[in-house]
Amino acid sequence: RGAKAGGGGGAAAGLRWVIVGDDDGGKLFTPEQYEEYKRKMLPIRLQNRLYVSWRSPTGMDCKLVGPETQCFCTHRYKQHKTDYEEIPKDRPICVPCQVSRCPCKSYHYVPLNGTQPIRCRCKHFADQHSAAPGFSCNSCSKCSGFHSCFTCGCGQPTYAHETVVETKQERLAQGKPVGQDVPYAAMGGLTGFSSLAEGYMRLDDSRVGAPSAEFLESPSSSMDHPFLKAFQGPSSSAQASSQLTGGSSAAKQVSNLRSSEEDDMAYFEKQYQERKKAKAKLHQNTKQSQKEKTQ
Ligand SMILES: [Zn+2]
Ligand SMILES: [Zn+2]
Ligand SMILES: [Zn+2]
Ligand SMILES: [Zn+2]
Ligand SMILES: [Zn+2]
């Protein structure tokens, strides 16, 4: 077995991160643990993916939540519980934060005003409020819970929107896009290139992807998915994420993280092409030796 335990440089760590997320507790899995993890988690992930979006009363998804999208608790979506061996029967489905001591009971999107946090009607910023249910203000006593009139691009106020967590079947039943099945952690509502634009700017609503059995056999085969080529969000490398856990300094770091994400994506592409070549070669060799055997 040729794989190295540490996975080497930042790009390899980035790839691992996209698949493993926080599930290795910050320690790198050994190659055996990594394989075991993939065997167990990827089928679950492909089947039980939860789609998270921020929905306007008009029914439009104004924001599709991705791995890096911040929650009201200031942590990223990927820091929440996003993998379920069995999808909960109760609705709404709760996606609690997994950062220790964070009181967030379920992912809750809150928009930004450009790059600035929005204000509550009590005049305090979103992050001055408790992430515990009720979202009470930590800075005043007159607030009855976070409530913002900030107007979304759809024309509706923030308070009229809701964070929706739903299954693939539930989305399909409403004619909403689900994209292709991907093995990556915390993909949330991202369903392809069009997901990266705000909902009201979206042009494409027909990205229903057929589930691919090949993913189970060879997870890396999804690396050529347009999603990866299009994905331009802030970095997902393990190191960057642990720096971001603090939350408030996140915005400042986003710009320098962006380039490492592009590196990750370039890595996926390269890795995929190499694997494809290796697979083709292996296939040929196998054929060759079978031929020789039968002769
Ligand atoms: Zn949190
Ligand atoms: Zn949260
Ligand atoms: Zn308030
Ligand atoms: Zn307040
Ligand atoms: Zn909206």
UniProtKB/TrEMBL annotation:
Organism classification: Eukaryota, Metazoa, Chordata, Craniata, Vertebrata
Comp. bias intervals (Low complexity): 230-251
InterPro entries according to UniProt: Fam221a/b (IPR026755)
Pfam families: FAM221
Region (Disordered): 226-295
Protein name, entry field: Protein FAM221A
Similarity comment: Belongs to the FAM221 family.
